[in-house]
Design goal:
Elements (H helix, E strand, L loop, with lengths): L2 E6 L4 H10 L5 E4 L9 H10 L2 E4 L3 H10 L6 E4 L11 E2 L8 H7 L2 E3 L3 H15 L10 E7 L4 H10 L6 E3 L9 H8 L6 E7 L5 E8 L9 H11 L6 E3 L19 E8 L4 E8 L3 H16 L10
Parallel strand pairs: 1-2, 1-3, 3-4, 4-6, 5-6, 7-9, 11-12
Antiparallel strand pairs: 7-10, 8-9, 10-13, 12-13
Helix pairs in contact: 1-9, 4-9, 5-7, 5-8
The structure holds NADPH dihydro-nicotinamide-adenine-dinucleotide phosphate and N-acetyl-L-glutamyl 5-phosphate (X2W).
Main location: cytoplasm
Protein name: N-acetyl-gamma-glutamyl-phosphate reductase
Function: Catalyzes the NADPH-dependent reduction of N-acetyl-5-glutamyl phosphate to yield N-acetyl-L-glutamate 5-semialdehyde.
Length: 310
């Protein structure tokens, strides 16, 4: 059976990456709009209603508009934007997050892709909260660096034109980044973490870190118990995995760039009771296009890893 898939925003950074992953897939008939039609309301409304699946690779407002244009009960939506990540009636499209999440995605008509930073943060923290090693009210923080493609076409142009020459810049300085809501909601914690994002002068890739003072946590978990909780959570995943970090001395932002996988590592100093958890992923891979294609596969009842770069 062939499913029709309309990519709205197909010439943007995320849209192009999804097209590459779906090229040559016989299960899907990919529809895109070219030229003036790609922003023409009537052409988009028709494509949105004709398709079995729609993948929205648009700014938030345009994504909300696109959803409002769907006037049938058949078309199923995957939204790559941040418009619906904590919205009523939407399933959070992070298949590995909870034991029943992939099944919920498979049944859903409205799936929201996670943000790239929350993908790293939640992968590290949710299993620790679920198992009680980190309490729901613990004051968490997350430090993260992204490649500049995380800012889409506009940021790519800034860095590649030479207008922005920095090696590394911190932002989100008002501590109100748009990813806070989904981090809090889906980690199931009582307060948003202190989030310290930055952009590096590299095209793609991410390094997301959560520091944990183990000595101060109520259960005083060991590094080994943190590692076990994470290993157990992703034991069956071909996409998210914990690697043994004993011999690791450096972690590069590009570690998983160009792939759709995510790698977790636990470092620490047992004597001081301190841990440093690190996730690496590609902002355009598991952070965007890889997750969208994974969700599409799951919703279509196909092997979740089909077409992914692992
Ligand atoms: N880049 C990343 O790493 C990630 C991005 N995302 C999210 O994915 C979405 C897309 O981001 P990204 O690909 O980076 O952004 P880009 O700016 O690269 O692409 C967005 C595309 O949407 C098009 N567009 C804008 N408004 C409309 C409209 N009204 N109708 C039709 N097309 C429209 C733009 O057209 P034009 O070409 O004319 O500007 C552009 O091609 C965003 O919501 C972003 O937040 C999510 C995770 C990671
Ligand atoms: C480097 C950079 O600017 N990154 C983007 C997030 C990219 C991402 O996850 O996209 P969503 O907009 O879909 O959440 C930012 O911080 O706003």
């Amino acid at each position: 059976m062939t499913h029709s898939v309309f990519i709205d925003g197909a010439v943007g950074t995320t849209g192009l990456e999804i097209r590459e992953r779906l090229a040559g897939r016989t299960e899907f008939d990919v529809i895109t709009l070219g030229g003036d039609a790609r922003k023409d309301a009537a052409a988009r409304a028709q494509a949105l209603n004709d398709a079995d699946f729609v993948i929205l690779c648009l700014p938030d407002d345009a994504a909300r508009e696109a959803v409002a244009m769907i006037a049938n009960d058949r078309t199923r939506v995957i939204d790559a934007s941040s418009a619906h990540r904590v919205a009523e009636g939407w399933t959070y499209g992070f298949a590995e997050l909870e034991p029943a999440q992939a099944a919920a995605i498979a049944e859903s008509a409205r799936v929201s892709n996670p943000g790239c930073y929350p993908t790293g943060f939640l992968a590290l923290i949710r299993p620790l909260v679920r198992t009680g090693l980190v309490p729901h009210d613990w004051p968490l923080s997350v430090n993260a660096v992204s490649g500049y493609s995380g800012g889409g076409k506009a940021m790519i142009a800034d860095f590649e034109s030479g207008e922005e020459t920095t090696a590394h810049r911190a932002y989100g300085l008002d501590l109100s980044h748009k990813h806070l809501g989904e981090m809090q909601r889906h980690a199931r914690i009582e307060r948003a973490p202190i989030f310290q994002p930055a952009v590096a002068h590299t095209h793609r890739g991410m390094l997301v870190e959560v520091p944990l003072p183990l000595h101060a946590l109520p259960r005083k978990p060991s590094l080994a118990s943190i590692e076990t909780a994470l290993r157990d959570a992703y034991r069956d995943s071909p996409i998210v995995g914990l690697i043994d970090s004993e011999e690791t001395r450096l972690v590069r932002i590009e570690e998983d760039a160009g792939t759709d996988r995510m790698t977790l590592r636990v470092f620490g100093n047992a004597e001081l009771g301190q841990a440093r958890l690190i996730a690496t992923l590609d902002n355009l891979g598991k952070g965007a296009a890889g997750a969208a294609v994974q969700n599409l596969n799951i919703m279509a009842g196909i092997d979740a890893t089909a077409g992914l770069r692992l």
